[in-house]
Structure formats: structure tokens, C-alpha cells
Amino acid sequence: MTPTIAVSGPFLGAGTEQDYPLAVDPGSAANMFVNVQGVVQMLGSYELIRNGIGAFIRINVPTGCVFEVRSIV
């Protein structure tokens, strides 16, 4: 099976740790590439959160900074 890349965002940072919805559940944070204002983030700087309604990224992005998440599924 050929992997697919799903893009979530763009999102706007709130300056505090927030949960942002993902388009798909990547299965692991290791399957996520997070880009904040053009800078790829280190794996430990965000978490994959799952609850009864879907998958989310938990991250603290500075106020007004745009970011997106690319997930390999």
C-alpha cells in the first residue's frame, strides 16, 4: 500500500498549549511532521491526543504563528 499524506491546518497559534484537530489519525506522533512558520518541529515538542471524537495535536505555538501538520497514513 502506498502511504498517503494528509494535511491539517493551517492553524493559528494561541500562545498556550492547545489541542488542534487533525484531519486523520496518524497512529503515532512519529508519523506527524509539524511546520511552524516554515520551521519543522522536533518530535518531542508536540503530542498526539486521541479522545472519543477524534485525533488532535497538542502543541504550544506562539500567538499569531501559523502552523500545519502533515500526517503519513
In short:
This protein is mainly beta and 73 residues long.
Whole-number mean pLDDT: 96
| Low-confidence parts | none
Structural class: mainly beta
Q: Note the gap between the termini.
A: 10 Å
**Rg over C-alpha atoms, rounded to the nearest angstrom:** 12 Å
Number of separate helices: 0
Largest sheet: 4 strands, antiparallel
Strand content: over 45%
* Strand line-up of the largest beta sheet: 1-7-3-4
How helical, in percent, are the residues?
under 10%
Order of helices and strands: EEEEEEE
Give the overall shape. Answer: globular
**Number of strand elements:** 7
Can you walk through the features of this model?
Helix content is 0%, strand content 55%. The protein has 73 residues and is an all-beta fold. It has a four-stranded antiparallel β-sheet, with no helix packed on it. It has a three-stranded antiparallel β-sheet with strand order 2-6-5, with no helix packed on it. A hairpin with a 2-residue loop joins strand 5 and strand 6. The N and C termini lie close together (10 Å). The mean pLDDT is 96.
